[in-house]
Structures are given as C-alpha cells and as structure tokens.
Design goal:
This protein is an alpha+beta fold. It is built from 19 helices and 19 strands. The chain has 5 domains: 3-88, GIY-YIG endonuclease; 103-205, no CATH class; 257-328 and 343-359, Ubiquitin-like (UB roll), CATH 3.10.20; 393-532, Nucleotidyltransferase, domain 5 (2-Layer Sandwich); 551-604, DNA polymerase, domain 1 (Orthogonal Bundle).
Length: 605
Amino acid sequence: MTPEDYRKLLPTLPKQPGVYRFINPEGTIIYVGKAKNLKNRLASYFTGIKNQRPKTRTMVKNAQRFEYTIVDTEVDALLLESTLIKKFQPRYNVMLKDGKSYSYICIKNERFPRVFITRRIIKDGSYYFGPYVSKWRLGTILDLIKQLFPLRTCSYNLSQENIDKGKFKLCLEYHIKNCTGVCTGLEDEQGYNERIDQVKNILKGNFGAVKSHFKALMMDHAENLRFEKAQQIKEKLTAFGDYQGKSTVVSTTIKDVDVFSITSDDKMAYVNYLKVVNGAIINTDTIELTKNLDDDEKDILEFVIPTIREKFQSIAPEILTDFEVVVAIPNVINVVPKIGDKKKLVELSNKNVKYYMLQKQKQAISHQNKQTHAERILRTLQSDLQMDRLPMHIECFDNSNIQGSNPVAACVVFKNAKPSKKDYRRFHIKTVVGPNDFASMEEVVYRRYKRLLDEDQPLPQLVIIDGGKGQLSSTMKSIRKLGLENKMTVVGIAKQLEEIFFPGDSIPLYINKKSESLKLIQHARNEAHRFAITFHRNQRSKHFTTTELTNIKGIGEKTAQKLLTHFGSVKKLKEASHSAMTDVVGKVAATKVLDYFSAQRKEKE
C-alpha cells in the first residue's frame, strides 16, 4: 500500500478509538493494531517513512489495504485488538499472541464469599466484574476493597457445621485486621453479606453510599491532621471516578451471538456483522449491496444474514438486530435487545455501519471532485488548442544526445491529465548517424505510431513535441506517412518563450503563463526531458565504462564487466596488482590489461 493510496482515504478516516487491520493481497490479516485516534494512527504509517523501523516499512509495503472497527473507548480498543491477534496470529504482531484471557474480579458463590482476581470464568453462580486491562487499576480497586471491607482470603469450607465444631483457628489476617474472623463465628453471615453488597456496588459503579463513606473518612483524617492518609483516600476516590468496570467488546453475561445492523442510501445498502464467541468479538465485517427500487432494509437483512453466517461459519444460536427480522435458520432466534450488554453490541454495530457508509459517500465525492478538476484542465486545454476531442490521452517526445553519441529518445504518456508511467517508452536511435535531432524525431515518431497501428492500440488525442518548427515539421513527415494527420492534434513547444507551434503555421500560440493547460503541457515536456536525459546518462555511463577495456585486444565485454564489478572503476583497476587481477579473470587476461595500462603510461611520459 502506497502513501498515494492512503491520501485518497485520508478525508474519510474517523478520529475515534478503534482497531485497524492491514491485509495483504491474498486477504490475510498481517497486522492488527489499536488506536486512540484512528486517523492519526494510520497517518503515522504513511508519513515520516524514512524514520520507521524496517519491519514496519515491510509490513506496509506488503499490505494491499486496511480495515478498521470503531469502538467506544481505548480500553475497548485494547480488548478487541487482543482478541483479534489471538484469533488470527498476524505475521507482524509480536505481543498478545500468548493466548492469555482477561483478568476479572470474582465474588465467589459460597458462604462468606471471597473476592479475588481470576482469568477463568466458571458458570457456578459467581459474580464476575471486568475485564480489566490495567494492573494498576485492578490493584487499586482490590486494595481499597480490602481497606474498607475486611473480607476473608482463605479457601476453607465455612459451613455452619464446620464453624460450630471449631475446625478453624484465627490466622494472621485476623490479627492484622484484614479479616473479621468469620471462620470462628466472630461475625454472622448477614453482616458479612452486607459488606459484599457494598463491594458489588463499587464494582458496578454504584458509588453513592460508598462515596459518602469515603468522603466522611477523608474529612475525619483531615480534621485529625492525618493529611497523608486523607490524601491516600482522595487518590483512591479519584481512581474510582476514572474507573469504568465494563467493556462493550467483552462480556461475561453473553456467550455466542451474531450481531447485524443495516443502513442504506438511495442506491446502496450496507450491512455490518460482529461475531461474538464466549462474550468476545472475534470477527467483524461490513458488506455492500446494490439496492433494487422496491428493496427495504428488512428484506435485505433477512436475505444476507444466512450468507454472512455461512461465510464466517457461525453456529451462534442467537442473532441480535435493532428491529425484528424473520430468521429462516433452524434453532436460531432473533432478539431485539432494549437494555444491557446486548443492546450495547447492537449500538456498536450500528455505529460502525453508519461510519462505513459515510466513508464510502465521502470517497465518492472526493473521486468526483478529482474527476472534475482533471476534466476542467483538459477542457481548458481543448479550448486553447481548438481541438475537436477532449485530450484524455496525451503523448510527449524528446531526444537526447551529446555530439551524436548514444542518441536516444523518450515518449511519456499522460492519461486523464496525470502521468501513466507504465506506458512510458524509451528508444535507441537506429537509422540516424550523427547529431540530427530532426531526423531522430522523425524516426521515433514513426516507430511509435507504426507499432500502435500494428497492435491495434488506441492513439492519443494530443501529441506534444519538445522543440520548435523544425522538430514539428520532421514529426509531421512520419504522421503523414502513416495517414494519421487528421486523427490526432500535433503541436510543438519551444523552450525559451513557451511558444506553441501548429503544423503549417509560422505564427505561434501564446497561452497565459498562469493557465492550467500550459502547466499541463510544461509538465509533459519536463517529464519527457527528464525521462530521456536519465536514459541517455545510463547508456553513456555503460558505454564509457566498457569502451576503454574492450579496446584491449583479447578482452571482451564479459571480462571487462567482471573487472569493473570487482574493482569498481577503471582508476582502481589501474592501481590493482597482477595477482589481484589474476584472481578475477585469470593470468592471461590480467597480463593483457596490465600491458595495455603500462603502454598508456609510457606514451604519456
């Protein structure tokens, strides 16, 4: 994927949190990343490329496109990123491939419940809160719970029978006031469960009474000049204010579901799909469908649901949508959630499908504007040159040689007012001897359009010749010989005053220097000159580096090339020893080269 491809998408990218995926030409996800701001994060892959790590540059080069999914928060982005990396194991991701699950706080379903951290969710009636992605936040919450509500940490079976029999003894946790001694009957079950209810309130975010307790405790510390303890309580209270205990993309209350949402405009319908397995989003997709006149969103969604489920091999028994649909799949039900986690999933799907449609509409407008800009330039050029047809296809020629040596020519092609580099052509001058630009131009133009005619290729509407009346006159000889005089517009551009010459007209045309049409002609002329000069330099360099050595009797091009490749230049070759040269081309050839250089030195002396 190139920076140019990215710039086309730039106006449509969102500034919201999300997860992006780079995908190669085979459709394989090769990298998954998260972003606080999708637009800024994706921009970083296509700007400042020289400062990027080689691995990043290689990844972007191997990607054909990228996709993204919008989420509500940075935490959601991290969780979805983790899920997708574990599922797809992208080649360029290093972290998060270990298959670990998320951390939760569990309130165990038992007598005198324990509160602890776990990665396993067991459906035994216990309460699970999370997932948590910040170890600092998780530690703060548990520490605060431990300070406010002393709870047991042991794993004993605290049945009433075991307590009555006195099976347990008070441990260190009781003596340091981290536990109330429930194992020996020092606290009843009702009082303990009231504290557990307050813990649930904290983890659910119902801070009301708990916050009042915090504030009262903080004020008490302050009044008694215990400012350090008051500050500690304040910091923990602030941490709770920032805490968000639930994620949209991972839920312990949902198992396997498919989530669908749809939106449409006059011509197209867009359907978003979220695949949820064990409460986590493991795949997302958005598809486009062309609407018929009588199609409504309900019919389209009912039609596409079985297709998408088959594509992603879904066996989820439940389908979530924001309006009722008829699901013609055995043992599968449709649910339209009104509240809770399932409702949040439907809202997330809706947000993604609407943003996807907005992106497509912006792309269409951007494409239309670009077409309009190019069309405006070409229509101005058509008017300035009084052409019958719009010059969608333009070709420009230039010659290059130094005193007749290594004569070459170049043809550059512009389509829709932009260079089409895959259509550029280079020419060695074959029939002209000596420095004759007019004859060279005649040869090249004839060869170019003779080939296009033989291969039945489309001809350009406009041909530009870099030069004045002489080059243009020579060009027209070939054009007439091929019978193309009335099939293309041919003009020459003189470099000094930017004069435009027409065949048979001695009076040049002067186009306004600020005109977009003149700038397009100049662009084509400069590009042809650059392309021809580059080709000529390469040919001249190749010729010069081999000529001196191939002048030596018994030294051919292959031997000369071996020596130049090994020693780097003729100058270094002259300084090389006989043994060093022998190692490269053998004793006989080395002797011939050294004798030649020795004779040269004697002549100079």
